[in-house]
Amino acid sequence: MSESEKTDKRPGLMGRLRNGLRRTRSGLTEGLATLFVGRRELDDELLEELEMRLLQADVGMEATQKVLDGLVERLGAGGTGETVLEALRAEIVNVLGPVEQPLEVDAAKRPFVILTVGVNGAGKTTTIGKLAARFQKEGRSVMVAAGDTFRAAAVDQLQQWGERVGCPVIAQPTGSDPASVVYDAHQAARARGVDVLIADTAGRLHTQDNLMEELRKIRRVLGRQDGDAPHETLLVLDGGNGQNALAQAEQFGRAVNVTGLAVTKLDGTARGGVLLALAERLQVPVRYIGVGEQVDDLRTFRASDFAEALTAE
User: Are residues 123 and 26 in the same domain?
Assistant: First the structure.
């Protein structure tokens, strides 16, 4: 068992995951069993009800259809409320399972570079801080590059996280070239033998081509120093944005080679089903989900845990 897996199995985290997804769960499965009282068939009326609930949870049409087709194949006629709930949980895992790919830090690549991207307000800076804390707990040395040079507040927040977990933050004055910051940080990380370098970038509107080009420049600068860098391009998405998160992911995917997702703020929304939409449409690994404000509430994504929390009675 990896250190990250041990971290995510600490007592109480499953409870926080269930609590974080309670709003999505209430709309999706609350009272589901009562729909089957006195009925022994998975008929069109029941399928329509399930379809409506899945769509309202922002599961998306493609994933919804896959779930419903799987239920029909799995149950046929004669399902009870209990078996349908179990089957629904299994079909959610069926959709999410292929993207359950935890991030593996290659110790042979030093520094292992994680480039974080995403729009303003997605929780990117906080996610970086939580990742830094996580890696530190695993015994890895971490450095952070404050590449969001347009917002002094972003640099301040990262520096606070750096002080909190004991990792250096490389920064330059507001308005500096972000690629220059990342370059300096990579040089420093290499010189100090740092295990992991996490590079922040400006929270940018995914529709602005000039800002997307800035991301490409950062990637080129990293690539010139290490042909494999960045080793992970982590897109941070706000789960509360529902289908807008899906649109953002598609835009970023066209601009840069997104290799993993971190979906945040699943504790305050009824749209947690967007993970299924992301999985079915993009098939990009989901590395982490955020289900609370505590440092430990950024947890490795596990399809079975998510499905259980989403459908718990």
Answer: no
Instruction: Answer for the pair 48, 85: CB distance below 8 angstroms, yes or no.
Output: no
| Same domain flag for 39 and 148 | no
The conformation of residue 147, written as its DSSP 8-state character, comes to -
Distance, in Å, from the CA atom of 55 to the CA atom of 224, rounded to the nearest integer, reads 45
Final residue before a domain boundary, out of 99, 130, 147: 99
The residue out of 43, 65, 99 marking a domain boundary is 99
Can you tell me the distance from the alpha carbon of 200 to that of 13, in angstroms, rounded to the nearest whole number? 27
DSSP-derived 3-state class of residue 72: helix
Q: Distance between CA atoms of 87 and 75, rounded to whole angstroms?
A: 8
Host H or E run for residue 211 = helix 209-225
Report pLDDT digits (tens) over 60-94.
899 999 999 998 888 775 566 667 778 888 999 99
Whether this prediction's pTM lies above 0.85 is answered by yes
CA dist., res. 156 & res. 38, Å (int): 60
